[in-house]
Design goal:
Helices cover 63% and strands 6% of the residues. By secondary structure, it is mostly helical. A 3-stranded antiparallel beta sheet has the order 1-2-3. A two-stranded antiparallel ribbon has the order 4-5.
């Protein structure tokens, strides 16, 4: 898959800095495009910044009581929305990358099996010399079979992958130039015959294109594992949150409120750790774009189409906000009990 122009409907979250999540503690984010650090007072602003579809509004006591009997899986299903979409994208990208890998491998095999004309066949035959002596401008002998075979092999392999029309939809020469470079493509499309050196260069180029897909496929495997782990972590955290908040605060003793506060703190710490790990992965997650050796951000490359460049950060921040809001309410209740 080739990188498409990225048009973001939301600002890209570059870094998230999460401090001690107590009442009044500042939370800051920064993005180079916005000119530096921006202090935020709550995670609803973070969610608006990264483009999450959900922002928790403060609930009145009566409203809060009406929401207590939500099913255990509701938090994960309602707030963890972007990671499942990201997993589907990675799966599709993996299937297409492997198809392209195999196509270039088959192309290399077909090119290697070609037999370039021998040196003797490159010279003019005696009959052609005789014709030339009679006609100073004769048609040259046909020596393009090998060159034509390379272009046909490219059509039969690379241009025939199932997603080619949807993904690229380019003429042969344009696609070949992106994959093999302008010089080699010019040689393939303008030379009158296939030479051993040209045959070797095409075979090497096809192998290199296939190897790029192998490397990219490995990175996609890592990304798929990361997404699955993040989804499981947030699902578990969501269940822990709901267990901690199952009983209405006004029915809890002070001791129970302290226990609930600790449980919510644990949920917060889990989200913080996940966000920090994902930020590290984002920083270290640059990968060679499969058509060239250009370095791109893997997550920008994969997720530009869904409007959220960093789906794990968005979902983790959404769950974190829910836990933060509830913990602050527990703290408010503890203050009232003094």
């Amino acid at each position: 898959m080739r990188t498409a122009p990225v048009s973001y409907s939301i600002a890209i979250l570059s870094t998230i800095s999460i401090g001690i999540l107590a009442i009044g503690s500042p939370i800051s984010i920064t993005d180079p495009a916005l000119g530096g650090w921006i202090p935020l007072l709550d995670f609803s602003a973070v969610l608006a910044f990264v483009g999450s579809p959900t922002t928790l509004s403060p609930l009145q006591p009566g409203e809060l009581l009406q929401t207590r009997n939500v099913a255990t899986s509701s938090l994960a299903s309602s707030l963890i929305t972007w990671i499942p979409r990201a997993k589907a994208i990675v799966q599709t990208e993996q299937e297409r990358t492997r198809a392209e890998r195999d196509a270039f491998k088959h192309l290399g095999n077909r090119v290697s099996a070609l037999e370039p004309p021998s040196p003797s066949s490159a010279t003019l035959s005696s009959d052609h010399k005789l014709i030339r002596s009679l006609d100073p401008h004769p048609s040259p002998p046909s020596t393009t079979e090998g060159i034509d075979a390379i272009q046909q092999a490219y059509r039969d392999t690379v241009l025939s992958i199932p997603h080619y029309g949807e993904e690229y939809n380019e003429p042969l020469v344009q696609n070949m130039a992106i994959e093999f470079g302008e010089d080699l493509t010019t040689a393939i499309t303008t030379h009158s015959q296939l030479t051993p050196s040209l045959q070797q260069a095409v075979g090497q180029a096809a192998t290199a294109a296939s190897v790029r897909r192998v490397r990219f496929s490995n990175r996609l495997d890592d990304e798929a594992t990361t997404l699955t782990d993040a989804e499981q972590t947030l699902t578990t955290t969501g269940k822990q949150y709901e267990q901690a908040t199952e009983q209405p605060r006004h029915h809890q003793s002070v001791e129970d409120l302290h226990e609930t506060h600790q449980q919510l703190t644990t949920c917060l710490e889990t989200c913080e750790q996940l966000i920090e790990e994902r930020q590290t992965q984002r920083t270290d997650g640059h990968t060679a774009e499969p058509h060239t050796n250009e370095t791109v951000d893997l997550q920008e490359y994969l997720y530009y189409s869904i409007g959220v460049t960093y789906p794990v950060l968005v979902d983790a921040t959404t769950v974190l906000e829910r836990c933060t809001t509830e913990r602050r309410r527990v703290e408010d209740e503890l203050v009232l009990r003094l």
